Amino acid sequence: MKSDIDIAQAATLTPITTIAEKVGLAADQIEPYGYDKAKINWQPTSAQATKGKLVLVTSINPTPAGEGKSTVTIGLADALAARGQKAMVALREPSLGPVMGLKGGATGGGYAQVVPMTDINLHFTGDMHALTSAHNTLAALLDNSLQQGNPLQLDPRRILWKRVLDINDRALRQVTIGLGGPVNGVPREDGFDITVASELMAILTLATDLKDLKARINRIVLGYTYDRKPVTVADLGVAGAITVLLKDALKPNLVQTLAGTPALIHGGPFANIAQGTNSVMATKTALALADIVVTEAGFGADLGGEKFMDIKAPVLGQAPDAVVVVATVRALKHHGGVALDALNQENLAALASGLENLGRAIRAMQQYGRPVLVAVNQFTADTPAELDMVLDYAQQMGAKGRVANVWAEGGQGALDLADLVSQVVQTEHAFQPLYQATDPLVDKMTAIVQKIYGGAALELSAKAKKQLASFAQFGWDQLPVVMAKTQYSLSDDAKAINAPTGFTIHVREFIPKLGAGFIVALTGNVLTMPGLPKHPAALDIDLDDQGQIKGLF
Questions:
Q1: What pTM value is reported for the model?
Q2: I need a labelling partner for 160 at 20 to 30 A (CA). Which of 85, 251, 287, 347 fits?
């Protein structure tokens, strides 16, 4: 059986200029990065940007058994194209952290992949490097201001802006800088986040144009003065320089699927500490160029799905016309208590138990008033009885379901799903926001806990309560909220899988992200700089004598 990288490397790719022509882009509207990838330097008008239909793909809570959300997203787009639709797919860019760590790449799998797979998973068009450089330039300018007399009166103990690196490195979570005497700066505690956790990543993917990008950068809160007043990038006066470093990264990246379906891959904010979706600019561009656009949101419906609806959709100016929840029989059996080494055996009792996690995801997305469908991502060991049980359950929940065998068959394995999606998106449905923009932050969080997670209550630490009081003084108390929570559970306890009940979500502190336009609520033990596992994926990646990359997945 061929590996994902073998399949990708054996493919014959269409020149990126031809892919651009397929969606109506002229030669002067793209900037090719070699033969098979390009930046788009064209922006649609407001009317053009809402022309297409939008399909959001989300999933159940992820497990080690695998869900294949990106694979289904790509396969669905290929299936729509095979049915004669003018379709595009819009995805996030992979981070080197997961690629070299535990999760691996993020370009789909089998015969439902975006290509060039190795380029996309590694340096691609340099967006991650630009973000890393921009973020750390801002950090250096901040510390230089401290060194040069501290005219902004920043309290070194209350600086929020860390440094970043696009790799998992737990040793850098907490560091001390400025040691070695006066010429080396002001000694203080600092730390590193992974690049995709940077607020600049969230800003890049929410900005609507260069002007908006610069305005958002100006609003970033870097820290607080000795008398507890916020200090922003506007106070530091360097937004222009940071915007210059990001001007090319703001342009969406054009590639293709194995089937030649045009694909936009741009931005990669985490779904537990940011909005978890590809850029607004890429989505708007795709909606202007295609009749139907398939996109995905990171992790499960409780994280990426909710944040797409509550954070991205208002900025985009368009909510999804349909939501597809991806599940696998394997993952549902794992939620039902089956060990990983026993997932290939039919177990209808465990599957029935684990289906409650799917039910929670369906109910969460139904809150928004848009039609919800279920895609069962098929594995070879799935039995007809198991597949039928999932489809029957979805039907009982008011969500029509279809089996998708896209890993083995590409778009041909999702034709039934594509037909269902094509039918559903033609019906108009009123969007129902989960909360109102003017609701207090506590009410917004409570709505998410109870309506999306299925939890009972919200509990704030003493620090979080004190922060909320200060946010009200600064006028930040009506911003949207990003719940930073483990992806593995509906609760803030990663071990409480499936569908826990009666739980309380504990918020330990808040982080203001004024540039992105939201407040982050930290729950549980969410890390913004992951660590590498005992056997990182990097141990399996190599290069042969001909320069061919091996072991990347």
A1: 0.96
A2: 251
